[in-house]
Every structure is written in structure tokens, then in C-alpha cells.
Amino acid sequence: MTKKTYISILIPTRNNVLDLIDCINSIMRSDFPLEAIELILWDNNSKQEYKNELKDFIKRLDKPEGLKLQLIEHDENLGVYTTRDELFKFADKKSGFILSLDDDVILPIFILKSLLMHFDSDQHVGVVGPRIVYDDAPDETAHGAGFVNRWFGFYRTKDTEIPVECDYVIGCCMLIRREVIDEIGGFDRDYFTSHGEVDFCLKAKKNGFKVIYDPSVIVRHRVDRGGTRTLERMYYVYRNKLLVIKKNFSVPQKWTALFIYYLFGFPKAIIDSILINRKVNLSEIKIIFKALHNGWFNRFGKRM
Fold this sequence. Notes:
It contains 9 helices and 12 strands. By secondary structure, it is α/β, with parallel strands linked by helices. Helix 7 runs antiparallel to helix 8 and helix 8 runs antiparallel to helix 9. The radius of gyration is 19 Å and the shape is globular.
């Protein structure tokens, strides 16, 4: 960067202290000046034993002089995107950039310097994300550049060989220019979890900022290949897709995409459930119905 840059790193966590400790240790190995970093952790009402283990780790951590580390404990699980939005309020006003992370990512030492170069080269760049790979299969890309078809409501990802402008990058690791947050107001709390980063990036683009995917920077993510399939996750994935459409598409695009989503997406969700479970799983079918019903009637926020 052409001038001294200060970065706030924000991490929500819940009952995942071992992965979080590894994530923090990877931050400590960064080749970026640690005195120009603040690290803010938000605990979403973890079990007491996990809270104690995290506090003990922080006490023992050999923190470089000048590094600010803050732990915020909340007595309720606010969900990923409400928490991220709350964390923005705690970021130091002098921070020019916000690195928003999941608690189960492992960062390369050069990530901050590499991603910051995109902001230096173009003042319109608002969000930059790296290539995300599976921690247990680092040669396999988990998420690349994200694109949204605004007529059909479909998402697709592309793993490019060079940096590319796209519609969104995955929320587990995204570096954000402070002006983007000031202008669009942070993450939308209606999402609670799932698709919040898509909404954020689409709004950033609508306000004139670019979203860049950089495949040369590789971040390991400790998630299962194929994703986690729980009733809660299914509900928010299906419901929040409707929220993205309603909040970010033009009127003709919105009604076209909603029609297609209910005509084809709903039956596909039912068929996928039957194929994956090799039987009719009534709990999943009910959740799919509930998600699409609540999405249509604008019942957003925390519902599970």
C-alpha cells in the first residue's frame, strides 16, 4: 500500500475453539505488520468449556507489541450475518479495511499484502476474496468466483487461473474496503446465515464497487466436501435464496426468477432430498415447504 494501512480482522465463533485457535495462529504468522492489525472475536454463546479454553489460549498467546485483540461474549447465538454486522460496529474507525473470516479457515502468510494490491491498483475495488480449498483436500477448490444469473436466479462458481471480476466471493474470507461498509451499511440481518455474502457483494456492485476473486491466494477451509446437511442449514439456504432475489433483482428479473425457482427449484429440492436419503425424509420435506412458504411471505431473520 502507498500509505500505512490498518486492518480489522473480525471473526464470529461458536463451539469451535480448536479450529479458531488454529485460525488465530495462522494470523499470527502473517508477514503483514501485526501492529497494524486488530483482531476482534465474537463468541455466540458457546458452551462454557469452550469459552474457558479460548480465554486460556488468549492469556497464553504471545502477542506482538501493538496488536490489539478483543473478545466479545454474547449470551445468544445471533447467527453469522447478524454477528458480522455487529462486529463492524466494533472495528476501529482508523481501519481502512475489514477482513471478515469464519473461525475455521487457515490463512497463508502473505494473504493481506496480496489482497491489498487489488485495492491499490483500482480505487473502485470494494471486495476481494481468495481461492478457498478444502483443508483435507487442498488441491480441490471449494469455492471460486461467484456469478448470479439475475433472470433465472441461478448461482455458479468458476475457478479461474487469474484474478477476475465477479458477482460475489464466499463469506468465509473476504477483505472489504471500509468505504463499502460506510456506503451500503454492512451485512443484512434478515439472512441470519447463508447467502448473506451474496447479498452484500451484489449491493456493493450496485453502488459502483468491484468484487474481485484472486485464485493466487489460497485459503484452507475446514468444511465437509458437499457441505453440511442439517435441517437448520437447509431451511436458511432455501429461504434466503428467495431473499437474495427479492432484494437485489429488478422487478421483471425478480418475478421471472421467482417463477422459475418455485416451478423448478422446489421440485428439485424435493427430488434431491429423496435421492440423498434414498427415501422420503418427512423432516426435510417439511423444512423445504417451510422455507419456501416463509420466503414468499417475507418471514425472514432467525426462524429456526
